Amino acid sequence: xxxxxxxxDALRLGWDxxxxxxxxxxxxxxxxxxxxxxxxxxxxxxxxMASDRIYFVLEGAGRFExxxxxxxxxxxxxxxxxxxxxxxFLGK
Length: 92
Description:
Elements: E1 11-15, E2 18-22, E3 35-39, E4 46-47, E5 53-56, E6 62-66, E7 69-73, E8 78-81, E9 86-91
Antiparallel strand pairs: 1-2, 2-3, 4-9, 5-8, 6-7, 6-9
């Protein structure tokens, strides 16, 4: 089993305004994954049906929109989005 993951080995995904580095995959852990999201525009509305999502803000600031509620975030904030809940993120 693999325990350490690095950015240089991560799978790079994303689109204009969103760079995603997927550190782990379902083949590593069935109910968990880790990644880094670098947002310069808008994340885009999504809804995870596989698991809850936990976001730890490392730098910058922005706003999550979760189930119709706007939540401003800054470094060291943690956001938890329950499975099946639609959400979006907009960087400032």
